[in-house]
DNA sequence: TTGTATAATGCGAAAGATTATCAATTGCAA
DNA sequence: TTGCAATTGATAATCTTTCGCATTATACAA
């Protein structure tokens, strides 16, 4: 008789690899995260998790998100607005950056090797080793056609 | 008979130029800000302001800091830690960036024209005009000498 | 499988930063 | 100097996140 409420997911496996106890709630939150390709805040994660398994409290989402971040499974982002937002940590490949549409708030990801290198060089020249880069740019869509949307 | 508690300052002049009513509290906060070359949070600004003129409440510091930011006089910074930090807005010259020492928390400013240009180019190529750059890097001091401090 | 030690959860309270409320005060234009 | 809208101080409210603690579930050994 199966009782498992949420399927396993890549993040659930990561959980095990880190030796974290895999509770039903964590499995559900891991599933929701694996299934997301945006940058939800805790409130939004909670909504998505409850839709999968209603036996979850927001306190556990807060706790799990923190645990996952401490274990390198999640990355916390700050796009302003006063609440933390989360996404699955980049694997091996380089970090990515975020462009926020000033009008819509939409978040657009981008990678740029030159930027990676330049930041590293700058920090090196200042006598430091680069630990973390916190970068997001806010932009406004250029009107390509007159009277454009 | 003079009653003016705080001297005028570059920021106080800016206040007038923007048509903002120049109250005693604002003059004091403007003076404190002009006098600072670091990145104080509101609590710290409050301390410094009270040292100059005790007739100031923290609510007014919050209000003033917000007003100044909305008027381009101040820039709000987020170095993590949950509280906003402030500094006088860069005048004409380009923005600067911040390197945070991972161990001491010390904030080191730097400018880099190549970085300015690269960010602008990247955003342009994505079809946007650059509005704001939010960038800070965390670094750890390289040991230059063995056994170094 | 069953039992147990331990870690995790749910719920509400607490904390910490910032904003809102509102009566009293003040800057400033007339 | 007056008048009045804008600002202030004190404090309550709000918002996000963390804590405390009794209850429950997981991992693991018997
Ligand atoms: Mn933030
Ligand atoms: Mn912050
Ligand atoms: Zn992203
Ligand atoms: Zn600075």
Overview of the molecule:
Two copies of one chain form a homodimer. Chain A has helices at residues 10-17, 24-35, 42-52, 58-70, 113-125, and strands at residues 74-77, 85-88, 97-101, 107-110, 128-141. In chain A, 21% of the residues are buried. The model of chain A has no long low-confidence stretch (mean pLDDT 91). Helices cover 38% and strands 21% of the residues of chain A. In chain A, strands 4-3-5 form a three-stranded mixed sheet. In chain A, strands 1-2 form a two-stranded antiparallel ribbon. Chain A contains five helices and five strands, in the order ααααββββαβ. Chain A has 149 residues and is an alpha+beta fold. The longest helix of chain A has 13 residues, at 58-70. Chains A and B meet through helix 5 and strand 5 of A and helix 5 and strand 5 of B. Residues 78, 80, 82 of chain B line the site of one manganese (II) ion. The structure holds a DNA duplex (30 and 30 nucleotides).
In short:
Two copies of one chain form a homodimer. By secondary structure, the first copy, chain A, is of the alpha+beta class.
Helical residue percent band of chain A: 25-40%
Oligomer: homodimer
The spatial strand order of the largest sheet of chain A comes to 4-3-5
The counted number of beta strands of chain A is 5
> Unreliable segments of chain A (pLDDT under 50, ≥5 consecutive)?
none
Biggest sheet statistics of chain A: 3 strands, mixed
- Cα separation of the termini of chain A: 55 Å
**Gyration radius of chain A, rounded:** 18 Å
Series of H and E elements of chain A: HHHHEEEEHE
Mean pLDDT of chain A: 91
Please state roughly what percent of the residues of chain A sit in beta strands, choosing from under 5%, 5-15%, 15-25%, 25-35%, 35-45% or over 45%.
15-25%
Biggest chain pair contact, residues each? A-B, 33 and 33 residues
| Overall form of chain A | globular
- Specify the structural class of chain A: alpha+beta
Small molecules bound: manganese (II) ion, zinc ion
In DSSP terms (H or I, runs of 4 or more residues), the helix count of chain A works out at 5
